[in-house]
Design a protein that fits this description.
Elements (H helix, E strand, L loop, with lengths): L1 H12 L1 H4 L20 E2 H6 L3 H5 L6 E3 H5 L17 H7 L6 E3 H15 L6 E2 L1 H15 L4
Antiparallel strand pairs: 1-4, 2-3
Helix pairs in contact: 1-6
């Protein structure tokens, strides 16, 4: 169960990366900022909008209340109620200060990136991004 919660948290926090899609001439979708056909760790970190989205008071950290008020995922199963996220928040708040800050999100992004970088070359290829997206869907019970 803990594995699924952590995976869900990682998916929620790095949703931009996990759902990156390639467009015509864009091998890494919106994550590939320089258009070189691969996504570096720096691009991966810059491509996740969670802090901007959830930090509603713009104090540089996400409170438990801000986290609980996060919007439902667009691809969430119909009729499935979402809890307040207390348990997930507790796992993400690594230093137990009652907030999720940029350092904690960066650490999470680094772990996620490392798992996605199957060949260990320090960059995500379109194939690795696609595999991560498919894996996240499978883990979360989605099937689109």
């Amino acid at each position: 169960m803990k594995t699924y919660l952590i995976a869900g948290a990682m998916l929620a926090l790095t949703a931009g990366a996990a759902s990156a899609q390639s467009g015509p001439g864009q091998m890494g979708g919106r994550l590939d900022a320089n258009g070189d056909g691969k996504v570096t760790l720096a691009e991966f970190k810059a491509g996740r909008p969670m802090m901007q989205r959830l930090d509603t008071n713009k104090d540089g950290k996400i409170s438990k209340a801000e986290f609980a008020a996060r919007p439902q995922r667009k691809d969430a199963p119909e009729g499935k109620a979402r809890g307040d996220g207390s348990r997930m928040f507790g796992m993400l708040d690594a230093n137990n200060d009652g907030f999720i800050d940029k350092a904690e999100l960066d650490k999470l992004a680094e772990r996620r990136f490392s798992r996605m970088d199957a060949d260990g070359d320090g960059a995500l290829s379109p194939t690795e991004l696609q595999a991560a997206r498919q894996g996240a869907r499978g883990m979360m019970g989605g099937g689109r």
